[in-house]
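Input structure tokens:
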């Protein structure tokens, strides 16, 4: 099948990697996302009153594969990614952060891509050899040879219901939810590590966001992530209550009485691949032979590196098709 036009649904790292690699090779790509901008789980948010910006999703990421290190080198040379000498009872190796915020990385990846923000795709169908996409407003986007769904497994499921072999794979996949609490203190808290891991209680990890390179905050800003198990049990608790619980637990853990000057809270329904998750054999899934693909961190091994690997895998396979025809 000759490939001339590709629709990518989802502008997280995986979708952006597919789209940017295809666009660089001259393929006509349209990228759809329900959010206002690109980034997905690498988004950043501004505190309401202060100028400080904090990272709402992944606070940093580590890389183990040389293939992905080639990509991080390229992003570093563009000035949107920096190494962070983070410590958590010892240095965290190959640790990267977007600069001046995580979303700088995904903004860079989206450069030159025909992106349709605030466009939630609700239905896809194949007609006369081409894919048509329907959005939440009833608008039709058509004429695509290939469609890549670069979205979490539960969100991808309704689109592939007619392919039982793929729904079986998707049924076995899940991402853990997470509550994220942001706290800004007016003085430096007496903590030496920039990342703290906790093995019990609600908090899994605390990250000193303001210590990351490129951040200009005059406040000591901390991000708290709840554990997957705790988040599942407290999914429907009110944000205000979660904020209070995590804040008090953190203050108790580090033994400070200071009250934060600013706070914020966010719930992610799909945050991280659980530890020991069964990852599909290949880093991308081709759904039958109809030009429909699945990509995402959950296929590529989890995390930002997994999302990059999955996006790169799917782009490479699609480009092989083009070369073949
Ligand atoms: C709190 C938290 C902490 C994390 N910590 C780390 C960490 O320390 N290290 C690490 O490597 N990773 C971490 N991660 C995970 C990392 O952020 C993800 O693995 C990665 O960003 C996933 O990228 P993705 O492209 O696969 O998916 P996403 O970023 O989820 O992108 C999917 C996109 O699809 C869009 N979308 C979904 N459905 C539709 C639809 N129907 N129509 C249009 N658009 C749609 C969404 O809006 C979203 O933008 C963390 C994530 C969170 C939330």
């Amino acid at each position: 099948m000759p490939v001339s036009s590709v629709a990518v649904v989802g502008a997280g790292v995986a979708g952006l990697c597919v789209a940017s690699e295809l666009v660089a090779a001259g393929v006509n790509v349209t990228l759809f996302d329900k959010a206002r901008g690109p980034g997905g789980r690498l988004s950043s948010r501004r505190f309401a009153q202060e100028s400080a910006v904090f990272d709402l999703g992944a606070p940093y990421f580590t890389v183990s594969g040389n293939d992905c290190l080639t990509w991080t080198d390229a992003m570093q040379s563009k000035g949107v990614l920096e190494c962070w000498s983070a410590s958590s009872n010892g240095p965290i190796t190959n640790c990267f952060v977007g600069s001046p915020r995580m979303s700088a990385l995904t903004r860079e990846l989206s450069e030159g891509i025909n992106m349709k923000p605030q466009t939630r795709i609700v239905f896809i169908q194949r007609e006369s050899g081409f894919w048509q996409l329907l959005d939440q407003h009833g608008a039709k986007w058509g004429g695509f040879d290939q469609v890549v769904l670069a979205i979490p497994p539960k969100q991808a499921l309704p689109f592939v219901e007619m392919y039982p072999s793929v729904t079986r794979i998707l049924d076995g996949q899940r991402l853990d939810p997470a509550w994220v609490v942001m706290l800004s203190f007016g003085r430096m808290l007496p903590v030496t590590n920039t990342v703290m891991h906790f093995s019990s209680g609600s908090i899994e990890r605390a990250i000193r966001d303001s210590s990351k390179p490129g951040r200009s905050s005059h406040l000591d800003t901390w991000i708290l992530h709840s554990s997957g198990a705790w988040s599942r049990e407290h999914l429907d608790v009110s944000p205000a209550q979660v904020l209070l619980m995590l804040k008090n637990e953190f203050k108790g853990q580090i033994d400070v009485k200071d009250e934060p000057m600013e706070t914020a809270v966010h719930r992610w329904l799909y945050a991280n691949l659980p530890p020991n998750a069964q990852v599909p054999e290949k880093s991308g899934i081709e759904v039958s032979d109809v030009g429909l693909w699945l990509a995402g961190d959950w296929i590529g091994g989890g995390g930002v590196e997994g999302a990059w690997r999955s996006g790169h895998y799917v782009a490479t396979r699609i480009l092989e098709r083009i070369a073949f025809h």
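The chain has nine helices and 19 strands. The mean pLDDT is 94.
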